Every structure is written in structure tokens, then in C-alpha cells.
Amino acid sequence: IAPGQAFLAAVIARRMPKTVWIVCPSVRAQDSLYETILNWLPATQFLPEAEFAAVENVLPDPEIAAERLALLAKIDSEPGPHVIVTTRASLEQPAPKRGAVSAATLKIKRGATSTMGQLLEKLSGSGYERVAQVTTRGQFAVRGGIVDLYSWQAPLPVRLEFFGDNVESLREFDIDTQTSVRDLPKIDILLGAAGDQSAFVRDYIGKEDLTIDVEPDEAAENSTALSAQVVQISEGWIESGPEDFSGAFQDCDIGEFAVGDFLLAEAKRDQFIKRLNEWRKNKARIVVYFQTEGEIERFRELISADVLQDVDLVLGTLARGFCFPPADLVVLSAAELFGRFAPHARRRLYHAERHRAQIDFSELNEDDLVVHLEHGVARFAGLTRIPTTTNGEQEVLALEFANEAKLYVPLEQAYLVSRYVGVGKRSPQLSSLADSKWARAKKNAASSIFDYAGKMLVVQAEREIVPGHAFGPDTKWQHEFEHSFPFRETPDQMKAIVDAKIDMEQPRPMDRLICGDVGFGKTEVAIRAAFKAVMDGRQVAVLAPTTVLAQQHFEVFRQRMLDYPVRIEMLSRFRSQGEQRKILELLRQGGVDIVIGTHRLISGDVVFKDLGLVVIDEEQRFGVLHKEKFKELFKLVDVLTLSATPIPRTLYLSLVGVKDMSTIETPPLNRLPVETIVCGYDERIIRDAINRELERQGQVYFLHNRVQTIDRVREKIVDLVPQARVEIGHGQMHSDELEEVMARFVAGKIDVLVCTTIIESGLDIPNANTIVIDRADRFGLADLYQLRGRVGRAEHKAYAYLLLPREMMTIGAARKRINAIKQYSSLGAGFRIAMRDLEIRGAGSILGTAQSGHIMAIGFDLYCQLLKQAVAQLKGRKFQPRLEVDLRIDFVATNEAEFAQLGPERRIPAFVPANYVSDTGLRIKAYREIAETSTRDQFDRVQREWRDRFGKFPEAVDNLFLLAEIKLAAAKAGISRVEVRERKLMLTRRGEFILVDGKFPRLVAKATHLGEVLELTKKFT
Fold first, then answer.
1. Dihedral of alpha carbons 259, 265, 267, 270, sign
2. Assuming Cys at both sites, which of 9, 223, 622, 759 could form a disulfide with 626, CB separation 3.0 to 4.6 Å?
3. What is the CATH number of the domain that holds 272?
4. Is the separation of the CB atoms in 226 and 241 below 8 Å?
5. Which CATH number does the domain housing residue 9 bear?
């Protein structure tokens, strides 16, 4: 959409005292017009199209559905006038009847009288699903006096806290941390209207509303007569409309400037200044739009202040400039002046999936392998109840060891058990309760880990004494360059940038690893480091494992640095021999600042005048010989390594102080989750899935992992979708041929790529937004997770179709297969566990083969604990392993069964009651959290989070926290056992009782209370 069209639409809308609907021919046109019109009408609303998968009965994306409902409710309930940007297709999509959305909205205010029972009844009757923990729209959870609720139209879930029949507080909370983020005075809950789709969006256009039809010819095929007045805007004119506008604009021409007219290169700067003066003579108002403050600073440097007199420099997003003669207005775009298009800033503010989802006990399934800290590897046999000595029953975790030996772990000791995660696909042997093999395995691992950490520290110490180049502080141009970044940096991306620059300013060579998924912003870290090196007069080499990836880096680096005198070249087989010779000569003379290429850069004929920084992308994909060459060649220069393999957070924290690592874990804002559809193999679905992607000008991966039959599959797809350009890519092709295919796919010259798993992990192809995976049952969850991640990086919703043999979809299929299918389709536990598996593979690649063996033997979590201990000891830090304190207090019941049996006269409760946290998985997690607190800060944080999530503490939970506080105080004093027997306090330290005047201290209060035990224990700290 030409920006002039958006401006004309804004002029009309601003002069109308009624609601204006601006109708675009496509989603891309809508995004473009909306982004542009915000420059002049910031209150403009966006009504998205509901996107559907090519399978019946798959609901549209809940985020988009929620956004549509929220806007329709606003149109219904607020008189306006509104300005709404939408598409022709969106107007024809189903919607609730007018009035239904506002009629089905329940309004609740803080402090209002409302019973929890009535609310729960309404939610259940309106199709909301009751769950243990709210994770998506349309769900609610109940914990004591708290109701968590994610309404269909809400941006965030809300937490309602009741006190009797009063709504005591309303709070929005974070879906990932489950903690409150802000208080609300009132909320609107959409009840029944979400399922009502008996009308169309076009029914919301009122009789008095004005509809502006943008590019009507482009959408003529799908057009429907609109009942309201219609103004049709083409690129430079108005076709028809209300009388009061036709006179003003009938012959109005919006002159669009062609790209490249006013490039601010030396040759064209004079022409630009000449045109500015001409416009000024004609008394035109001149406005220039810049996307960032950095661009404005750069512009002021290039054009003198007297030339810029009376020129308005404003922040905004504009692809190109235009003239508007009726108002003597000239609007220019910095994107054109600097010779580049500003990247498209996505409108939607979705909550992307977090790649660091925590694995918790609510995801433990029967038959999963677990590690008991004291007894070793076991199989989880589920939750069960066993009789207690007091004739009651107690809920326990049942663990199965070697020789069918069973161990029952009470819920309050669940923190001793963690999921077993190893390296590779081999399963470990179950430990025996009858021998000491587990203790030996732990001891051997600890010894090896200590040696490994020691070697890493030696390597780091050697690097500290090697002289390197200390780069200077950031220059003015560096600040401008960083300000010109058109996206908002994520916090951990910003931290990685700062880490790298601090390293570069040290007088020793940098060796930093940056880990993060594709599209998370690693390249920008490298670009800023490279720019810093060039500003200091040094050269930069960027190595990529394939020519296609090198080409992609070349284009990104060149685009980012276009406004600055930085010469960037590429050495690869895409360059002729003559071009390569010329580049090599310039490198030797210092005429090239940044060179990008494959391992060609480490050939003998590549000589730098003054190399200062090397960036290595996807190092793990280079061969062993290449890696050795890197170490030899780049010993004295700064090295920044980028890896798309995710690294486990626990490993990252364990390696702090031994290896310089930065992790970028936060997905970019607005990344839409990928819709995952599991279905039987069906040619109709394949045809529809490909056609839908092609209709929105996208590309498709069709993954078929058998080279023998891949040609037949390509022929089948050509038959199904004859208009598509279909090609093949697999690992048995010659590398040059495969790279040629991938380059064509990246360039958009292939519509459907029929391929094996060879599709490159490092490539960023935002236009490929559908992946069809044939025989998904032959892949592990981790592989599916990675393959699914190839799509979902553009403004469109992405789809992953997992095709299974039809017989696997029948009722009679084996139970395990059906469970696997359920896992494949889940966006929850299955894929989060898969992510963990992937991280462990990453851990294996960082730590090496020998250490992977120890991870296999004792499990990943314990490995990380031991590594952290070893690093702390070797660095001379005082490492105090958390002292396990044995608590035995005769007047405390630590589970519900014991309390029910002995009663409040003989025991005080100290546990998490089922009526306070009803879900067993959450209760286990709660016990684990409280058991793992080892500092006062952690203790206070857990207390705050529990109060927020579960509500006011009952007596049993208050006492449980007092027990935890007693443990903290005892551990601080080196006390390993706290026992109270018949009011006597028996404290054990280093195997001996603590006595006062030769006697055990006694509790003096008549009522048994843990507060006194705590105060007495603290006296000995």
C-alpha cells in the first residue's frame, strides 16, 4: 500500500464525525496501511483476519479470535467514532450477532458483592474449562478463595481473590511465572458470545458509517456489496464518494516518490538539497519521517542546519514519501533517503512461547525415569496412598528400583526426586537399593567434574595473560548506529551486547559464546561488535558453515551498515575467481573492513592487514580440522561464537566464571505460536495446506525423510498443486547443488521445498510459514520441536501439519501410539520436555563426550549441582553445600493423614492441605520449592508468590513455613538435627548435642508453638 493512500484515508477519516472502515485487499496491505496511518491517527483500531488451518474443526488462533472479539465488543458498547483498518476477507468472516458480545460480558468491580459459586457456575456454563493451572484463554482454576481466569478477549489472565462474598482484589498475572503484575479496579469477562458465530463482521458496519475501499480492483474477485457509503481509493485518486469530498479530491494526485530518488550518497546529496529549496520556494511544508533517534542524528550530520530550516524531522514509520498538493505538503521517508526500507515492525503484541519453560512435577508421567538424590535412578510408578502407623493413609510417590524393589517417598520429601534427563537415546540401568553402586557413580562423577572444571579454569587463566587488543569506548557513530536498530532489544539480547563490548575493551582476547534460537537476535550482537571493531580501525571476519548462510549474513550486515563508510565483502563460490582475487588484494591492503564467508576464510591465501574480531556462526557444524585451525589462527584476536543450540539454564549458571557465555532466551515480541495439527495422511489436506500458504504469498516445507521415494513425493505434489514451483533438497545431493536449491528457496524462487531433515537450522526464512511433516510418528518429540521451529517468523500465523498413517488414527491403535499422538499435538508438556531434551544435546556438545557419560550415569540436574560446587571450590569461594537438617518435632503433623488421626489436641498441622492446593502436581511442586530455599531472600520470595497464587495461608501452611525457617536457622548454625521430645529441644551439631548448663533447653510456653523452637534455634547461630 502506498503511504499516500494511508495519508488520504487519514485525512478523510479525521474530517468525518462518524465511524470509518478502511478496507484493504490483503493482510499485508492491511499491516502496511495500519502501520503508516498511525503516524497521523494513533487511535486507529486493527481488526485482524481469522486464519484457519486446512483441516476441518480446527479453531482459529485464540490470540487473533480474542483480538477480534475485543474490538467487536468495543464497537458494540462505545458509540465512537472509530477508525478501523481491516480486510475484505475479514468482513466476510463469521462473528457473534450485534449486541451478543456486550450482552454476554460479565462486569466485576473490586470491592463488589459477588459469590464465588455464582461466578464458577457462569464460567462452567459458558464453555470455560476448569484446570489446575491457567495457561491459555478459555480456562479457569480455583484455589481456596482465589479464581484464576483467562477471558476470551483479555490481553492477560486475571486473579480474583474473594473474602466471603466480597471481591477483595483483582490482579492481572503473568502466564509464565503465575505471579501478579498489577492491580485492576474492574474486569470484563466474556461469557457465551465466543461460540456464537451466527452473523458476519460486515453486520457491524452501521448505516451512517463510511467505508473506504483501498485498491478495489485488486480485491474485486472476492468483493461483496457493502451497504454503507463507499469511498474507493486507488493509488492516486478517489473513484467515488460523498459530495463534500469529491470536489476537494476528485483530481487530487498523490505523487509517490520512487525509491532511490534522493539517496543521501555524495553524488545525490546536492540534487536532494536543490529539490528541498524548490519545495521551500513553492511554500510547501516539508516533513521527514525517521524510525529512530539515531537516524535523525545521522541526517543532521549529513545535511547542514541552514538547509534544514523549516523542515520538520519527526519519529514515525514510513516506507516512502509523497506529495499532497491540496495542502502544499511534501512528506519524505528516511528509509528512502538512506537507500533502504525500514524492516516491517509487527503490530501484534502476542505473548510468544517461552523457550525456557520449567519442567515441573505436574508433567511427570508413569514409567518416566527419575533420580532420587540418595538412592539413584528409578522408574516413577505413579502416586499412591499407603497406610500409616497411626491407621490413616498417606499420599506418596512410588519409585521402582532394580529387582522390582519399591520405595515410597512422602510428598513433603518430593524435593529429593527429579526427572532423569541423560544424553542420547540409551536408557540407564535402574539403581539397586541393595548395593553402593549409586554412591560410587556419584563419587566418580564428582571427581571427574572437578578435573574438568579445573582444566577449563586453566584455559581461562592462560587467556588472561595473552596480550590482546583493547578496543576503545563506544564512539558517537556507534551510539547512532545502535539507535538506528528498528526493533526493541530484548533484555537478554541487550545484556549479550553489553557483555561482548565489555570483553572487547579488555586487554585480553575475547572468547565469548552467544546462545539463542534462530530469530532471537544473535546476529545483531555480532553486527554491533563488528561495527565497534571497524570504528577502532580493525578488520572483521565472519565465518558461516554454508554458503547460503554466509550470503544471508552478507545481506543483513550490508543492509544494517548501509549509512556508514564500511566496506563489506563476501568470499564464497558465488563469487568469480576474478572477484575473489580482487577482494583478497583489498583485504591485504586494508581496503575491506568486514569479510564474510565459509571455511574459505581460513585458506592460506587469505591475509588480513589488521584482523581484530572473528565471528563464528554455528561452530558445531564445522569439522574437527576446521575447529583446530580456528584455535591456531585466532588465538590472539577477539572471537565471538554464535550457536542456535539452546543451552540449559542450569548448565549456564554452573559455568558462570569458567566460560564466557551469554544466552538469549526471550523470543522477540509478537512471535505467534505455531499452530500444530495432527491428522491422518490425506491428499486433500496437503493440497489445501499448500494452496492456503501460496494464496498469502508464502512458501512451504514438505518434509519427507526418505531419499529413495522423495522424487515420487515431489511428483505427487506437482499433481496436487500444479501452479506451484516444487523442488527437492536432501543430504545425498552434491553440496553445491543443495546450496543452489537452498539459495533459490531463500530468494523466494521455490514455492514448495520437498526435503529431508537437511533443512538448515541457521537459516531465517520469514516467508516460509507452513511445514508439512510426512510420517511424523518416525520422529522424536525433540526433532519435531526443532522442525516445527523452522516456520513462524513473519506477520502470518504459521502451521505445522504432522501427518500420520491413517491406521494410527483409529480407536484400535495401541495405547502408547495414541498417547504419542496426543503428545505430538500438545503445545504444552510434550514440547516443553522436547525442549529440555534439545538443551541436553546442547549441553553434550559443549561439555564433550567424557562429561556426557557422567550426565548419563547420574542425570543432568545432579551433574549441574556438582559442577557448580566444583567451580566454586576451585575459584576459592567459600562453598557451603546446603546442610540437610533432620526435623523431628513430636507435636507436629507433617501430613493430613497424621493430623486427621491424632487431632488438633495432640498435633499442630504443618503441610499443604488438599483444600488449599487441590492439584497433586502443584502440591508436589510447592513442597519442592519450600525444600529448596537456602537463603532468606528465596524464602521471602516463595512466601510472596504462594500468597499471591493461592491466597491467605491456613494454619498448616503458616506452620510449614515456620518449619522451613527453623531449617534455615539450623543450617546457618551448622545444626544437622532439630528434635523436640516432651518439650525438650535436642539440637545436634557435628555429631554432638548442644547443651545449656549440661541440660537440653526446654520449651516454656504452655501452648506448643513452633515460634519458640525457632527463637531457641536462632540463639545458637
1. positive
2. 622
3. 3.40.50
4. no
5. 3.40.50.300
C-alpha span between 614 and 312 (Å, rounded): 42
- Kindly compute the dihedral angle of the four CA atoms of residues 940, 942, 943, 945, in this order, to the nearest 10 degrees: 120
Angle between helices 547-560 and 735-746 (to 10 degrees): 40
Q: Which pLDDT does position 817 carry in this prediction? A: 39
Neighbours of 392 (CB within 10 A): 17
Say whether both 480 and 558 belong to one domain.
yes
Considering only CA atoms, give the Rg of the chain: 33
All three cell numbers of 328 = 502544499
Quote the domain boundaries for residue 125.
107-190
Tens digits of residue pLDDT in 93-152 = 888 888 877 777 888 999 888 888 889 988 888 778 888 888 888 889 998 889 999 987
Nearest-CA neighbor of 416 among 371, 383, 363? 371
Q: 776 in a domain, yes or no?
A: yes
**Which of 619, 644, 664 marks a domain boundary?**
664
Q: Using 50, 70 and 90 to split pLDDT, how confident is the model at 733?
A: confident
pLDDT tens digits for 324-337? 877 788 888 887 77
Residues listed for the chain: 1021
Quote the pLDDT of residue 594.
97
- Please name the residue that has the C-alpha cell 492491580: 183
Measure the CA–CA gap between 991 and 1017, rounded to whole angstroms. 16
Residue 606 shares a structural domain with residue 545: yes
Enclosing H/E stretch for 762: none
> What does pTM read for this prediction?
0.64
* Residue partners of 943: CB distance under 8 A and separation at least 6: 961
Domain CATH for 987: 3.90.1150.50
Strand order in the sheet with 417-419: 406-410, 393-400, 376-387, 369-372, 417-419
Q: Tally Cβ neighbours within 10 Å of residue 948.
A: 18
Selection from 44, 18, 78 nearest residue 208 by Cα: 18
Cell numbers placing 179: 505471579
